Amino acid sequence: MKKVITYGTFDLFHIGHQKILERAKAYGDYLVVGVTGEHYDIDRGKLNVEESLEERIENVRKTGLADQIIVENYEGQKISDIQKYNIDVFVIGSDWLGKFDYLNDYCQVKYLERTKGISSSIIRSENKIIRIGMIGAGRIANRFVPESKFVSGVHISGVCSTEGAKEFADKHEIGFYTEDYNELIERVDAVYIATPHGSHYALAKQALLAGKHVLCEKPMTLKSSETIELFEIAAKNKLILIEAIKTAFAPGFIRLIEIAKSGIIGSIKDVSATFTKIEKGDKRELNPDSDGGSLYELGTYPLIGILKLLGKPDDVNFFSYMNNGIDAYTKVILSYKQAIATAQTGLGVKSEGNMVIAGTEGYIYVPAPWWKTEEFEVRFEDFSKNKKFFYKFYGDGLRYEIAEFVKQIKFPDQPSWKLTSEDSILLSNILERFKMN
Ligand code: CTP
Questions:
Q1: Which of these CATH numbers, 3.40.50.720, 3.30.160.270, 2.60.120.10, 3.30.1330.30, describes 120-245?
Q2: Which of 20, 21, 22, 111 maximizes ligand 1 atoms within 8 Å of its Cβ, making it the mutation to test the pocket?
Q3: In Å, how far are 130, 149, 179, 404, 408 from 157, measured between CA atoms?
């Protein structure tokens, strides 16, 4: 019996999928189809898959062409599958030409011409492209546009800024630019706010009241009553509002939280997370009049790590080294009934940017830069039991928050647990207490 294998995501099953399965089947007597697992797709940078693994398996099953369906969970699995299932021919579309030649050591490799003019990405985009308008043309905005290209179903269609809007639009080939925020709002489906902290509340409110979804740079506001109000307006108008904290949406960070909370290190008693970045010169971050300072600038990262692990603290205290009217370094101590946590941020002090989660049975060490979580180690007294975990963090990571924003807009009845309104409200509450201090 001649056995054939092929792989794919098979999202939003289309004629191209049907044809490749038919042709793969024709190469032998028995067809094994590998459908990619959800973690594997995210890990390899495929962020927008719309159907669940069960639905995609069902798509393939319904064709009646597969004699066996397996799940592909990791890079390199193909080699063991081919040996395990005694495969004679490996079949894949011509978009992968040359990429699987290494499998020739195990079986015959066939690249088949793709069906023209159709793909899951095209269908996802056709369903409706979300037009995003950006307000702000600074450093983060410059990183946002290239990252958005990795997410299907969105298009940055306009930019608004009082300075450099035209240059920004030219540089990034953005359809229109304007100095008038109302015009921007009118011409798009959603707004990305990348302006100084103090302006977020008013800009987000204006967009939400105009019926537009909002992705707002961190910190969303510096006052919990404002964050609460924004989420209330969003809920009332059935709109998505997300605070753009990339770490919260990154696959490695999500796994870190799951593993830490699984009980593997016993009960969590201490979390320490640090983010420092030396800044010099005439910058917004160093200017007290534009809400400069290390905690406002960097605090959302370590704080969200702590909140995801330990929840709402009973008490919060701050200790800062002040320089030229801003906190050049701050240590936040969050106390809980059963645990304690510290967050360190610095713009004028440099330290190791790692995270340590200590428990009653062991600890997790996440090396710098922990907020771009790519690896961590679970460590025990008996170090022979230590275990390392590795994940991918692509590019700047902004693609993860953009992908989540798009997913939320498309599927509003599947609320996000990655970063909730409660998380954002708690964050602004902590920043507000810092201001009062
Ligand atoms: N395929 C094909 N013709 C198409 C689309 C896909 O022959 N028009 C093949 C691919 O080459 C692959 C298999 O179908 O061998 C599964 O591909 P998959 O990645 O699931 O489909 P795409 O439509 O290419 O998905 P995406 O747009 O998300 O990349």
A1: 3.40.50.720
A2: 20
A3: 9, 12, 15, 19, 19
User: Cα separation of 267 and 342, whole Å?
Assistant: 17
Confidence of residue 187 (pLDDT cuts 50, 70, 90): very high
CA of 90 to the centre of ligand 1 (A): 15
DSSP state of 193: E
Helical spans, DSSP H, in 268-420: 294-298, 300-310, 398-410
For 300, 308, 392, 420, 431, the CA distances from 417, given in Å and listed in that order, are 17, 10, 21, 6, 22
pLDDT at position 277 over 90: yes
Pocket of ligand 1 (CB under 6 A): 8-11, 16-17, 20, 92-93, 95, 114-115, 118-121
Q: pLDDT tens, 82-128?
A: 999 999 999 999 989 999 999 999 999 999 999 999 999 888 877 77
Q: Compute the average pLDDT of residues 345-368.
A: 98
pTM: 0.88
